[in-house]
Amino acid sequence: MADNSELEKAIIGDFIPLAMIQAAEKEYKKKNEEGSLTDQDRFSYAWHLIKSRYKDDIKKGISIMGELCQDGTDQRDYLYFLALAYYKLEEYSEAEQCINRVLHMEPNNSQAKDLKKLVSGKIQQDNLIAAGVVGGAALVGAAAVGTLAVIGGAIVAKLISK
């Protein structure tokens, strides 16, 4: 079994060159102006955007893919790529919601299972970091209270001894 970094590389893959994204955008705009834009055209453009290295492109891809989810029939593919986009933006709870919907439709979908594993690992990692921050803050707070108690005790002892 591949470790998570290998699995992540396999799922996310390489970024699409900017020239390919621009070509897809040109085609998308042309068909939109002609009034001949299909769901497949929208999906293709959103897919290109989601495979970009740039967050603004990915966000635009999420918007288009989300629209397709609302009025499209091939929910599984739309949801999978939405989950992938959210994962790339480190929005793991949204990615988890999308990938869980895919797995609800197709429990044995190996691509979705692999992405679910990555998403779950990132959520667990974030939870551990958050717990460490909270634990560290509690430790600092306890140390501050302890220090104040010692100082307060010393002041009281000094006042009593006078």
- Largest sheet geometry: none
Would you identify the CATH H-level superfamily? Tetratricopeptide repeat domain
Q: Kindly state the percentage of residues in helix.
A: over 70%
* Oligomer classification: single chain
How far apart are the termini? 73 Å
Strand content is under 5%
Q: Label the overall shape.
A: elongated
Report the CATH architecture.
Alpha Horseshoe
Sequence of secondary-structure elements: HHHHHHH
Q: What's the CATH topology name?
A: Serine Threonine Protein Phosphatase 5, Tetratricopeptide repeat
How many domains is the backbone divided into? 1
Number of helices: 7
Unreliable spans: none
* Name of the CATH class: Mainly Alpha
Pfam families: Fis1_TPR_C (PF14853), Fis1_TPR_N (PF14852)
Keywords: Membrane, Mitochondrion, Mitochondrion outer membrane, TPR repeat, Transmembrane, Transmembrane helix
Membrane topology: Single-pass membrane protein
Function: Involved in the fragmentation of the mitochondrial network and its perinuclear clustering.
Give a structural overview.
This protein is an all-alpha fold. The protein has a single domain (4-120), classed as Serine Threonine Protein Phosphatase 5, Tetratricopeptide repeat. Helices cover 83% and strands 0% of the residues. The chain contains seven helices and no strands. The chain has helices at 4-12, 18-34, 39-50, 55-71, 75-88, 92-105, 110-161. The model has no long low-confidence stretch (mean pLDDT 87). Belongs to the FIS1 family. Involved in the fragmentation of the mitochondrial network and its perinuclear clustering. It holds the Pfam family Fis1_TPR_N. Its main location: mitochondrion.
